[in-house]
Design goal:
The complex is a heterodimer of chains A (163) and B (828). With 163 residues, chain A is α+β, with helices and mostly antiparallel strands. Chain A has helices spanning 30-37, 94-101, 111-124, 130-137, 148-162, and strands at residues 8-15, 18-25, 56-59, 62-65, 78-80. The longest helix of chain A has 15 residues, at 148-162. The mean pLDDT of chain A is 94. Helices cover 27% and strands 24% of the residues of chain B. In chain B, the strands form seven sheets. In chain B, strands 3-5-1-12-9-10-11-22 form an eight-stranded mixed beta sheet. The chains are: A alpha+beta (163), B alpha+beta (828). At the A-B interface, helix 2, helix 3, helix 4 and helix 5 of A face helix 1, helix 4 and helix 19 of B.
């Protein structure tokens, strides 16, 4: 029996600035391409149905859920994962620093997706209100924090950005 | 017991450390955060081993069916399939898992794959190992299972009727456990009370805190050494070992458990031992490491759910001044298809028999039953939150039916601050607290008077305002001896945790603990207390991340569960750090030519208190002991290791099986919540307008971490109250088994949570802390209370923990129907 979707296609995709020209099975999801093919394990899997956002990455500047996209669909795209962040002092960028200062994470499983969410939000809207932050976070489920400190962290990151 | 002076003493006196303070009590940023923020955590699905295969489980689509045959031949013929394992093989390879229930339920034969019969939808019946996860899944579709469907029972009470299909023939009925808890004299109370309030039925629904990371494991049965390595996210590995070892003939010395980062647990990851067992057998058969990552669907249908409980025939004796004397109730707890942590839940609720109240007379006729649903496992607030919700419902219903003010009624009946330590009717000791002060604070946080004014102003607007209160306990540090109340033959009692604190060659302070954290910040808080005791900074303390049976230390109770780390985990760390401190002082005194009493530790140096210039850095101590030891007198060299282990043991005795009395938990953190909700008269939609939680958990080690736990527990409760409920149909099909339809609460569902705190140090713990983090399910009580407050006059009482728009709509309409309200009052 041939595995369904085993037909292989070569895709050209840039991930965190590094170009990859790689053969992938047609059925392979972008999240599995990132995690298994490229070995970037900061992108997590939480639900398989596009609800939880643990697999969020930035694709051509937009926040997407990498479980909702086939790797072949990313052909020609530029992807940013959590591994692209954190060149600042202490190895954390200002958003990550704000999450650390405001206890915006507990188990850390949703965190990469949420940090990328915050990054795209603040790029589009540098000074979001609490309601705007909460609306932006709707597609990223966190089971630990009750979102309160995530909102605080993003507010703080926005404040720091404005300085 | 009483001392000769007549003063009641509850536990042996605890010496509280005087060294805590420089770092403990401060919101030190977490040591864990950097790696997690950078995506550098090591979760179980991030791990791999050379030659590993990927596992897919074949699961029963039926809730109850005889397994006629399982044919794996087509599956095994697929290139790239390494092995399969079926229930039939498991029946030969595995002894049934150890059962904690007494007979007859203790006769239950539970295996890691269904043997002969499947008893819930999603129960694994076979598994497939293949070179990729995709191939394993495809090949699993070729496993041909012939089922003969059987009658299904999903109702936790109807299941004990004679006509109900029996799940486990060897038990002979669907009763998992039954017992009567009878404290005080409830018959006398009912006879002498001025009023008796009778409530027909209350129902606590089935949900799960469903961690964002599902269950997973990488298991390797090493054919050379016979050692089985379990790299998993099980959150109570020594408990898992107790089940896996006897089942497949492994000594504990041949089981290696480890985990680094765990993506949330909330108790749900305690009972994954059944899967770990199947994976071990599959690895042995295939001669390969096996890797399994559960899908969300699998997690929701077949990992573990929280306990569902129905309360019938509640009778509450109340005096005319509002004093509630207690209550009687029949409780039916639905364990699902197997007992994997149960029937411990049948006793664990009794840690909080009277809730926050001075009830003296309580009778609970408790039955745990089996149904064709996913087995339950501990879920945040485990077994206590069901009982605490019952109590808060009782208090609100009494207030409403007898026209008492809900706030005043609570204050009148609360255990009063001056009564601590307080002995409950079943001999538990509440260590400390001030519930009236917490209630005052939480009402201030939601501007109670203002909310009442808004409520009045909203009349007739179609938006009804309701205000709710929920007071709960978060009992922590279990006495496992309580298991003997459900089965006198069980060989468990007490509790404990182990830690090692050592000084390494270059003066590094390293801490290992037996716990398996899932986001609670153990690396940080352990570093804080160690830094205090050794006179250094938390940055100088390396706390080894995660659980590792071989590399770290452990005891039989090791793990992270049941609100206890601040007491047991940190108790162990403090004890070990004190021992290391003693050794450092001894060596330092010798090297400085001083008496030990002249020595102090500060800034990572050993120095003379009178002359801080005379100082030796930790590296000097360590390097001398490890690499320059001939410089030391032989007697001293022989007496130090700089590698100090300590086991913290709470001062428990064994509870009494017959009377069901004893000291079941060491600490009682508490929470009082309040909410203002808006109920849409047309749709029944509930919107939270304001929410506040006041927490008391003794002396805090890291206030920010504590507040985070309060937020998280609150969000779980709010989610369960309004959005999250497992719904089975009559055929035992779970109707909401993905995050599409099991609605895990989002950032728009959980409101901003105001927090407040008071501090009542525990007199029974070495640091004054109390375990916390479960929150007692306070939002379930609070939101039920708020909805009831919003309902029109004459409406049915709020009778369920889960109140989605549909149910609230019915409650709103019940007033006009003028039917039974689920409650009646008899006054004399």
């Amino acid at each position: 029996m041939a595995t369904e979707g085993a037909a292989v296609h070569v895709i050209d995709v840039t991930v965190n600035g590094v170009p990859h020209s790689t053969a992938v099975p047609a059925r392979r999801l972008l999240e599995h391409f990132i995690r298994e093919t490229l070995g970037l394990r900061g992108t997590h899997i939480g639900c398989d149905t596009g609800n939880c956002g643990a697999c969020s990455v930035i694709c051509d500047g937009q926040l997407i859920k990498s479980c909702m996209m086939l790797a072949v669909q990313a052909d020609g795209c530029e992807i940013e994962t959590i591994e692209s962040l954190g060149d600042g002092p202490d190895g954390l960028d200002p958003i990550q620093q704000a999450f650390k200062e405001h206890h915006g994470l507990q188990c850390g499983y949703c965190t990469p997706g949420i940090v990328l969410n915050a990054k795209t939000l603040l790029a589009e809207n540098p000074h979001p209100s609490e309601a705007e932050i909460r609306r932006a976070l709707k597609g990223n489920i966190c089971r630990c924090t009750g979102y309160v400190n995530i909102v605080r962290s993003i507010e703080a990151a926005a404040g720091a950005q404005g300085e | 017991m009483s001392t000769p002076s007549g003063e009641t003493t509850y536990y042996p006196e605890v010496e509280q450390s005087e060294r805590l303070g420089a770092w403990s009590g401060k919101s030190v940023p977490r040591k864990e955060d950097k790696r997690l923020l950078k995506g550098q955590g090591a979760f179980v699905d991030d791990l791999w081993m050379h030659r590993q295969g990927h596992v897919h489980f074949v699961r029963s689509p039926h809730a109850h069916a005889r397994i006629v045959s399982v044919d794996v031949s087509r599956c095994e013929a697929v290139a790239g399939v390494y092995a399969t394992l079926t229930g039939e093989e498991v029946g030969l390879l595995q002894q049934p898992f150890f059962q904690m229930a007494p007979e007859p339920a203790g006769l239950m034969k539970d295996y890691c794959l269904a043997v002969g019969k499947a008893r819930y939808m999603g129960e694994p019946v076979a598994c497939v190992l293949a070179e990729s996860a995709e191939l394993a899944r495809d090949a699993a579709a070729l496993v041909e299972v012939v089922y003969e469907p059987l009658a299904v029972v999903v109702d936790g009470i109807a299941t004990i009727e004679p006509q109900a299909p029996v799940l486990h023939e060897e038990i002979g009925s669907n009763v998992a456990w039954h017992g009567l808890y009878d404290y005080g004299d409830v018959d006398w109370a009912l006879e002498h009370a001025d009023h008796v309030v009778r409530i027909d039925r209350l129902h606590f629904h089935r949900f799960s805190s469903t961690p964002l990371e599902t269950t997973g494991a990488l298991v390797n049965w090493d054919p050379g050494t016979g050692v089985v390595e379990f790299r998993s996210n099980n959150q109570m590995p020594m408990f898992a070992a107790m089940f896996i070892g006897p089942a497949i003939g492994l000594g504990v010395d041949h089981m290696q458990f480890s985990s680094q980062d765990i993506g949330g647990g909330f108790g749900i990851k305690i009972t994954s031992y059944t899967y770990l067992t199947a994976l071990a057998l599959l690895s042995r058969k295939a001669g390969r490491p096996v890797k399994w990552s559960e899908s969300r669907w699998e997690h929701l249908v077949a990992s573990a759910h929280g306990n569902e409980r129905t309360f019938l025939d509640i009778e509450v004796p109340v005096m005319s001044d509002g004093t509630i004397l207690g209550f009687k109730v029949r409780a039916f707890d639905d364990a699902g298809a197997y007992l994997r942590y149960e029937p411990l839940g049948a006793v664990i609720w009794s840690q909080v028999v009277p809730g926050n109240y001075r009830f003296k007379h309580v009778r609970v006729d408790y039955t745990e039953t089996l149904t064709n649903k996913c087995p339950v496992g501990p879920n945040r607030g485990y077994s206590r939150l069901q009982h605490l919700w019952l109590i808060e419902r009782i208090v609100d219903v009494v207030a409403k039916e007898l026209n008492f003010d809900r706030v005043a009624l609570r204050k009148l009946n609360y255990v009063q601050p001056e009564e601590f330590p307080y002995e409950t009717p079943n001999g538990c000791i509440y260590d400390s607290g001030d519930y009236p002060a917490m209630l005052d604070q939480v009402l201030e946080l939601i501007d109670y008077e203002g909310a009442r004014a808004r409520q009045l102003a909203s009349a007739g607007s179609g938006k009804r305002i309701g205000i709710g209160i929920g007071s709960t306990l978060d009992s922590g540090t279990n006495n496992f001896g309580q298991s003997r109340i459900i089965n006198s033959a069980l060989p468990f009692s007490g509790n404990g945790e182990a830690a090692v604190v050592r000084l390494d060659l270059y003066g590094e302070v390293t801490v290992t603990i037996g716990t398996s954290p899932q986001g609670q910040g153990h690396e940080t808080t352990a570093a804080q207390v160690t830094a205090d005791i050794l006179g250094c900074s938390p940055d100088q303390v390396h706390v080894v991340a995660g659980y590792n049976k071989a590399a770290n230390t452990y005891v039989g109770f090791s793990g992270t569960y049941a609100s206890q780390f601040a007491v047991t985990g940190l108790g162990a760390v403090m004890g070990a750090a004190e021992r290391l401190r003693g050794e450092i002082v001894k060596v330092g005194a010798c090297m400085l030519g001083a008496e030990e009493s002249d020595i102090e530790l500060a800034d990572g140096f050993v120095r003379l208190a009178a002359n801080p210039q005379a100082a030796i850095p930790f590296i000097g101590i360590a390097a001398t002991v490890f690499a320059n030891v001939a410089e030391l007198p032989g007697e001293l060299a022989d007496s130090v290791t700089l590698n100090c282990r300590y086991v913290y043991r709470p001062p428990f005795t064994v509870p009494d099986h017959e009377t069901k009395r004893g000291k079941l938990t060491l600490t009682y953190a508490s929470q009082v919540h309040a909410a203002v909700v808006e109920v849409d008269d047309e749709t029944g939609q509930v919107t939270i307008l304001d929410y506040a939680a006041v927490d008391e958990c003794g002396r805090k080690v890291n206030p920010k971490i504590v507040e985070g736990q309060v937020h998280g527990a609150t969000a779980h409760g709010i989610g369960a109250a309004l959005y999250e409920s497992f719904e089975y149909d009559a055929d035992g099909q779970l109707l909401n088994s993905t995050f599409m339809d099991y609605h895990a609460a989002t950032s728009l569902d959980v409101p901003h949570i105001r927090t407040g705190e008071i501090e009542c140090p525990s007199p029974f713990t070495p640091n004054g802390a109390k375990g916390m983090g479960e929150g007692g399910g306070a939002p379930l009580s609070t939101i039920a209370s708020a909805i009831e407050d919003a309902l029109p006059h004459g409406a049915h009482i709020v009778y369920d923990t889960h109140n989605n728009a549909e149910r609230v709509y019915e409650l709103l309409r019940s007033a006009a129907a003028a039917g039974p309200r689920g409650v009646e009052v008899v006054s004399r």
